[in-house]
């Protein structure tokens, strides 16, 4: 138990430190990378809680896909950090107020009164034979099947809406149709021979004039 | 011998096992680079490297010595910390993935239930090394290479993930050992046959994931010099190289494991039971892996580079629909117990 506790505090400290750095770093790319670190160490915390499926999926989905796209966008943008910080002092009281309310709310729910060991005794550690993924799947597709289905339909609607928003056909947009490209045949599709009369000879320009036009 | 092994502390045992996996792997990486130059050389009617050692067999060692001796140059305006961290971020996942890879029945460092997910998660981390290298170098070519690579990897990861979903539906497990066990029964009961479209998608996505030809726009020499690692010299560059080749070996080994029965013998069990070298064993896995490693080199010598928009089209509009349809087919086949594969 001792080593596990040490690991917990280590990863918890890393998570908190990384989260602090996300909001305090001046460089947005560094901030995103600290967010990645926070995700990875919270995945480690989940694995410590024997939720290895959730931990690995957190890394796979958030770190492996979502944050890569995030980083992609942040690198392309030229974020002016000075402009973002301009109103820091003005908004500080409001920010502190909201932070205070949130802290109190969190304390009311997970404070020692409701969340101590007497309210939630530590569950007995499951054996290594327990298949986490299987257990989670069984629960999700039997007990919680309606919430899962509803959530997935909402996500599908969101995907379709997002794709629809990006589809703005500009008239000057050039694109290729691969089906038509593939259908091209060797003969007349590629080259068209046109019969035409030979060119009329170019009229000779006087040398003096040519010199002037050179200027 | 066994008593001596059991007397060792657990940490030492694990460290020894890690060494036993990584040393042959790094040796294989070194000689894979030589094999690439030789194989492509012969395919193009050249001889390839033949100066160092007998027919050039010491070439990888000469290359390594040269790269170690070279000065590491850090560009003046680069982000120094990230610039130095990027190669480590590229190689660490490429090595850590092997922790769950089973080499034979029960011969695995960490036999975890969610092995396939672990491999998928770690191989999706490899892209950070590339993106950070491109950004931290403070060079336009490097950034362009990093952007291309990130877009490509994210696109093909989805197709690859779906192909693996097909495998896990077919095997009914995320554990790599169990996936191999589900393919028992000879050449035609391996998953390449019932999952043929997924096998194709997986192999091609694997080539794209490792940024290899014909999907190597991330380092298209003719357009952006060398891509994300253009500013790296000496060992920094070598580490990226090591990571790329280790990933290629991983893709080959995983293809052998997930679609070609891993260490299972291609002949029916009744014929080969107990026969030396014909029975199931690590040598079959090695043989299959080497074949797919050769296939990757063959592909590079054969196909010209894809155009960027064609890469994106292939990933998003061709592979993802194919995999989704085939997952449905496999799921139906499993539910209705389609004869040769899921009749039990």
TrEMBL record, chain A:
Compartment(s) where it occurs, according to its Swiss-Prot or TrEMBL record: Cell membrane
Q: Which family does it belong to?
A: Belongs to the complex I subunit 6 family.
This molecule's function is given as: NDH-1 shuttles electrons from NADH, via FMN and iron-sulfur (Fe-S) centers, to quinones in the respiratory chain. Couples the redox reaction to proton translocation (for every two electrons transferred, four hydrogen ions are translocated across the cytoplasmic membrane), and thus conserves the redox energy in a proton gradient.
Note the superkingdom of the native organism. Answer: Bacteria
Q: A Gene Ontology molecular-function term?
A: quinone binding
Record's protein name: NADH-quinone oxidoreductase subunit J
Cite the Pfam families for this sequence.
Answer: Oxidored_q3 (PF00499)
Q: Which residues cross the membrane?
A: 6-24, 31-49, 55-79, 91-110, 144-167
Query: PANTHER family in the record, alphabetically?
Result: NADH-UBIQUINONE OXIDOREDUCTASE CHAIN 6
Q: Report the NCBIfam families cross-referenced here.
A: PRK06638.1-4
Predominant place of localization: membrane
Which EC numbers characterise this protein's activity in its record? 7.1.1.-
An example Gene Ontology CC term for this record: plasma membrane
Quaternary assembly:
Composed of 13 different subunits. Subunits NuoA, H, J, K, L, M, N constitute the membrane sector of the complex.
- The enzyme's first-digit EC class, named in words, is translocase
Natural source organism? Thiobaca trueperi
Keywords, A to Z, come to: Cell membrane, Membrane, NAD, Quinone, Transmembrane, Transmembrane helix
The way this protein sits in the membrane is described as: Multi-pass membrane protein
Catalysed reaction equations from the record: a quinone + NADH + 5 H(+)(in) = a quinol + NAD(+) + 4 H(+)(out)
From TrEMBL, chain B:
Query: How is this protein positioned relative to the membrane?
Result: Multi-pass membrane protein
- Reported EC number(s) for this entry are 7.1.1.-
Give the catalysed reaction(s), semicolon-separated: a quinone + NADH + 5 H(+)(in) = a quinol + NAD(+) + 4 H(+)(out)
Q: Does the entry feature the keyword Transmembrane helix, yes or no? A: yes
Cellular component GO terms, alphabetical: plasma membrane
Q: Where are the transmembrane segments?
A: 12-34, 82-103, 115-137, 158-181, 187-205, 237-261, 281-302, 314-336
A GO BP entry is: aerobic respiration
Q: Which GO terms describe its molecular function?
A: NADH dehydrogenase activity; oxidoreductase activity, acting on NAD(P)H, quinone or similar compound as acceptor; quinone binding
User: One Pfam family name from the record?
Assistant: NADHdh
Q: Does the keyword Cell membrane apply?
A: yes
On the tree of life, the source organism's domain of life is Bacteria
Location comes to:
Cell membrane; Membrane
The record ties this protein, via InterPro entries, to: NADH_UbQ_OxRdtase_su1/FPO, NADH_UbQ_OxRdtase_su1_CS
Q: Which UniProt keywords apply?
A: Cell membrane, Membrane, NAD, Quinone, Translocase, Transmembrane, Transmembrane helix, Ubiquinone
Entries under NCBIfam families matching the protein: PRK06076.1-2
Q: Assembly state and interactors?
A: NDH-1 is composed of 14 different subunits. Subunits NuoA, H, J, K, L, M, N constitute the membrane sector of the complex.
Family membership: Belongs to the complex I subunit 1 family.
Could you tell me what this protein does?
A: NDH-1 shuttles electrons from NADH, via FMN and iron-sulfur (Fe-S) centers, to quinones in the respiratory chain. The immediate electron acceptor for the enzyme in this species is believed to be ubiquinone. Couples the redox reaction to proton translocation (for every two electrons transferred, four hydrogen ions are translocated across the cytoplasmic membrane), and thus conserves the redox energy in a proton gradient. This subunit may bind ubiquinone.
- What this protein is called in its record is NADH-quinone oxidoreductase subunit H
Q: Its gene?
A: nuoH
């Amino acid at each position: 138990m001792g080593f596990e506790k040490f690991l917990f505090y280590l990863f918890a400290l890393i998570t908190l430190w990384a989260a602090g750095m996300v909001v305090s770093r001046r460089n947005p790319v560094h901030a995103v990378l600290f967010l990645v670190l926070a995700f990875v160490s919270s995945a480690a915390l989940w694995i410590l809680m024997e939720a290895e499926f959730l931990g690995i999926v957190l890394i796979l989905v958030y770190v492996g896909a979502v944050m890569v796209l995030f980083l992609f966008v942040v690198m392309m943008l030229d974020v002016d950090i000075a402009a973002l910080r301009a109103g820091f002092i003005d908004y500080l009281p409001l920010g502190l107020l909201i932070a205070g309310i949130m802290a109190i709310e969190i304390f009311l729910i997970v404070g020692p009164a409701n969340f101590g060991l007497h309210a939630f005794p530590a569950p007995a550690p499951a054996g290594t034979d327990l298949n986490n993924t299987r257990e989670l799947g069984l629960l999700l597709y039997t007990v919680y099947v309606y919430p899962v289905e509803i959530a997935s339909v909402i996500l599908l609607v969101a995907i379709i809406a997002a794709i629809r928003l990006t589809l703005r056909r500009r008239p000057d947009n050039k694109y290729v149709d691969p089906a038509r490209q593939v259908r091209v045949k060797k003969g007349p599709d590629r080259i068209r021979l046109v019969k035409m009369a030979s060119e009329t000879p170019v009229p000779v320009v006087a040398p003096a004039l040519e010199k002037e036009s050179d200027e | 011998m066994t008593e001596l092994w059991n007397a060792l502390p657990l940490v030492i045992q694990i460290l020894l096992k890690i060494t036993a996996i990584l040393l042959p792997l790094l040796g294989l990486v070194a000689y894979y680079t030589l094999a690439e130059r030789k194989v492509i050389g012969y395919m193009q009617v050249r001889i390839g490297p033949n100066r160092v050692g007998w027919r050039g067999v010491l070439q990888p060692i000469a290359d390594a010595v040269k790269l170690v001796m070279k000065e590491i140059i850090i560009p003046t305006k680069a982000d120094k910390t990230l610039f130095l961290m990027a190669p480590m971020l590229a190689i660490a996942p490429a090595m850590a993935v092997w922790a769950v890879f089973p080499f034979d029945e029960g011969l695995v460092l960490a036999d975890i239930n969610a092995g396939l997910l672990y491999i998928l998660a770690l191989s999706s981390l490899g892209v950070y090394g590339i993106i950070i290298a491109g950004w931290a170098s403070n060079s336009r070519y490097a950034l362009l290479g990093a952007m291309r690579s990130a877009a490509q990897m994210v696109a093909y990861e989805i197709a690859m993930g779906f192909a693996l979903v097909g495998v896990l539906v077919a095997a009914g497990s995320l554990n790599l050992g169990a996936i191999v066990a589900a393919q028992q029964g000879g050449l035609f009961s391996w998953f390449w046959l019932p999952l043929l479209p997924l096998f194709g998608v997986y192999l091609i996505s694997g080539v794209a994931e490792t940024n290899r030809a014909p999907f190597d726009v991330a380092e298209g020499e003719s357009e952006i010099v060398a891509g994300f690692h253009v500013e790296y010299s000496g060992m920094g560059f070598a580490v990226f190289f090591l990571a790329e080749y280790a990933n290629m070996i991983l893709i080959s080994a995983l293809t052998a494991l997930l679609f070609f029965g891993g260490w299972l013998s291609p002949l029916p069990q009744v014929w080969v039971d107990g026969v030396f070298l014909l029975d199931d064993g690590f040598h079959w896995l090695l043989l299959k892996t080497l074949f797919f490693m050769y296939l990757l080199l063959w592909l590079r010598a054969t196909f010209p580079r894809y155009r960027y928009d064609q890469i994106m089209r292939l990933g998003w509009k061709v592979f993802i629909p194919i995999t989704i349809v085939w997952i449905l087919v496999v799921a139906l086949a499993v539910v209705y117990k389609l004869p040769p594969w899921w009749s039990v």
